From TrEMBL:
Protein name: VOC family protein
Superkingdom of this protein's organism: Bacteria
Alphabetical keyword list: Plasmid
InterPro entries: Glyas_Bleomycin-R_OHBP_Dase (IPR029068)
Gene3D superfamilies per the UniProt record, alphabetical: 2,3-Dihydroxybiphenyl 1,2-Dioxygenase, domain 1
Taxonomic lineage: Bacteria, Pseudomonadati, Pseudomonadota, Alphaproteobacteria, Sphingomonadales
């Protein structure tokens, strides 16, 4: 059991995220070599009221998400070069880029991060009532932690993805969403 008041105590890691140099090749690797899928592609994402290092940013990115049993695999593709956790200092292309934890209270996350001396790299809104924070607890590139307070529809979306993975027969490996 993680020590109370720590980043680990905020919740289990539910995602491993990668920032591949070649997004399409990464999709092919994960679906064909690893057998993970189907991936759901969400394109041209913009966080509401997004801030990078405390300053407004209009970063835009696309993600492909699939489930490997209980863990999400997320592949990220920056769609512009605006300041973000996927560009500049934090743009790591070898290995894992960040992990993600779903949380109940984003303000509790903010307090735990402050107490840990972490740097909030990006924060913003997801949909009407969801919130997200990406933070560097001190590891630097490759060690970013994402915290998501899911909004309306989030749990259902991820449940659909997980069910699709459980039933996946290898066909239609990449499916575009909205």
């Amino acid at each position: 059991m993680p020590k109370a008041g720590t980043i680990a105590a905020l919740g289990p890691v539910i995602q491993q995220a990668y920032l591949p140099r070649d997004f399409d090749a990464a999709l092919e690797y994960w679906t064909e070599t690893m057998g993970v899928g189907p991936f759901f592609l969400l394109e041209n994402i913009r966080l509401g009221e997004m801030k990078y290092m405390g300053e407004p940013s209009n970063a835009e990115f696309s993600v492909a998400i699939a489930y490997w049993n209980d863990i999400q695999i997320e592949l990220v593709r920056p769609d512009n070069d605006a300041p973000a956790h996927y560009t500049g200092k934090y743009a790591i292309h070898e290995g894992m880029h960040h992990t993600c934890q779903f949380v109940e209270d984003i303000e509790e996350v903010r307090k735990v991060l402050q107490d840990a001396g972490a740097t909030i790299v990006v924060e913003g809104n997801v949909g009407e009532d969801g919130r997200v924070i990406y933070a560097d607890p001190g590891y630097g590139p490759g060690g970013i932690c994402e915290f998501v307070q899911l909004g309306a529809g989030g749990p259902e979306l991820f449940a659909m993805m997980k069910q699709a993975a459980a039933e996946w027969d290898g066909s239609d490996p990449v499916r575009k969403l909205g």
